[in-house]
Amino acid sequence: MDLRLLLRFEIRDLVYFVALAEELHYTRAAERVGINQSPLSQAIILLEHRLRVRLFQRNRRRTVLTEIGAALLPHAKALLAEVDRLRKDIAAFAAGRKGRLRIGTSDGLFIPRIARLLEDSETQDPQIEFSLEHRSLAEQLRELRQGSLDVGLACTLASDPIGADLELQALPLHADPMVLALLPEHLFAEQGTVRSLIAATGPYFIAGESETTAAAIGSLIEGDGEKDDLVHCVAGLDMVLTAVLAGRGVGLLGEEQARSCHREGIEFRPLGLAKAKMTTYLFKRREDASPVLARFVERAQRIV
User: Fold this and answer.
1) CB of 186 within 8 A of CB of 213?
2) Reported confidence tier of residue 6, pLDDT bands at 50, 70, 90
3) Where in the chain is the domain with CATH 1.10.10.10?
4) In terms of CB atoms within 10 Å, which of 12, 128, 259, 298 comes out highest?
5) Where are the alpha helices (DSSP H) in the chain?
6) 241-to-192, 207, 235, 266 alpha-carbon distances in Å
7) From the CB of residue 17, how many other CB atoms can be counted at a distance below 10 Å?
8) Residue from 122, 197, 163 nearest 283 by CA
9) Nearest residue to 189 via CA among 272, 303, 268, 259
10) Three-class SS of residue 133?
11) pTM of the prediction?
C-alpha cells in the first residue's frame, strides 16, 4: 500500500474499517462503533471510492476482506494504536501527569520532608522526569528567571526573601523555630531558652549560602560594631555541627533539624525570638501555568 494513501484517511474511517474487517458483519460492526448500519456502509463505500480500491467483497450471505483490505488491516490497527497513545499522552500532559520538572534545592532544607515530597511525586507521577539541581538561593532565583529551573526549594530566615518581585513568587511551606547548637560550657547552655543573640557569644554558623539569611541573622544580633564576620553560611548541617564541636562558635538550625542530627558533645537550646524562624519556601515564576508544576506545588504545600 502506497503510504501516500494514508493521507486520505480520517481517523473515523480507520475505526470503521477495522471494526468491519474484524467483525465481517455490518450490523455487529455498526453496534461496535456506536452508529447505525447505513452510515457505516456509506462510510466504507466512500473510503473505497477515495482510495480507488475494493476493501471488502460483499454478498447477501457474507462479507470478506479483499487482498488489499487484508494488507491494510495491520497498518490501520497500528495507526489507531499510535493515535490512542497520542491521545493518552496529550491527556497526561494536560493533567500534569507527564513531562519534566527541574527542581532547585539548597543547603539547610529539612531532608525528611523534602525526601517525602520527592518520593510521593515520583510514586504518584511516574511519567514525570524529576531532576534535582543543587543551587544556592541566589542561583535558584537567577535560573528561575532564565528558565533553566522550573521550581526552587530553599530555607531562609528572611520574612520576604524576594520583595516586590513581579516575575517570581515565593510560597512559604513550613516555618521551623530556630535552635542553637552549642558546647556544654558555652554561656548559653545555662539558659533553658535563649532570649537574645549577642555579638560577644558568636560567631554564628548556619547551613546555606543565602545573603538574605545572613543579613536576617545579623539583624537579630545585639551589640554595636561590625557584624559581617559574626555570621557564617556553610555547606550543610554537618559543617555547622563540625564548627560547633571545634569550638569555633554557635550553630543555628531549625527545631526539626536539631531533632534529627544529635551529636555527642553538642547541646541544643531553643531561640525564643519571634522572628527567629527558618522558613522553607517554594519559588516559581508567577506566569508559569504548567500543569506539572501546579501538581507539584499543590503536593509541596500539603507535605512540606
Assistant:
1) no
2) low
3) 3-94
4) 128
5) 11-23, 26-33, 37-51, 67-94, 111-124, 137-146, 211-220, 237-245, 255-260, 291-303
6) 20, 10, 11, 8
7) 26
8) 163
9) 268
10) strand
11) 0.70
**SS3 at position 149:** coil
The torsion region of residue 269 among left (phi > 0), alpha (psi -120 to 50) and beta comes to beta
pLDDT digits (tens, 9 = 90+) for 208-260: 766 777 778 888 888 765 666 788 888 888 899 999 999 999 999 888 888 87
Q: What confidence tens digit (pLDDT) does each residue in 27-65 have? A: 999 999 999 999 999 999 999 988 889 999 988 789 999
- CA-CA distance, 104 to 153, in Å (whole number)? 6
In the chain, list all ranges with CATH 3.40.190.290: 99-298
Contact indicator for 209, 106 with CB cutoff of 8 Å = yes
Residue 152 CA to its chain's centroid (Å): 10
* Backbone angles phi and psi of 172, in degrees to 5: -70, 130
Please give the torsion angle defined by the CA atoms of residues 18, 21, 22 and 24, in that order, rounded to the nearest 10 degrees: 140
- Written as nine digits, the cell of 268 is 541544643
Among 3.40.50.790, 3.40.50.1760, 3.40.190.290, 1.20.1440.230, what is the CATH number of 99-298?
Answer: 3.40.190.290
Q: Is the peptide bond before 184 cis (omega within 30 degrees of 0)?
A: no
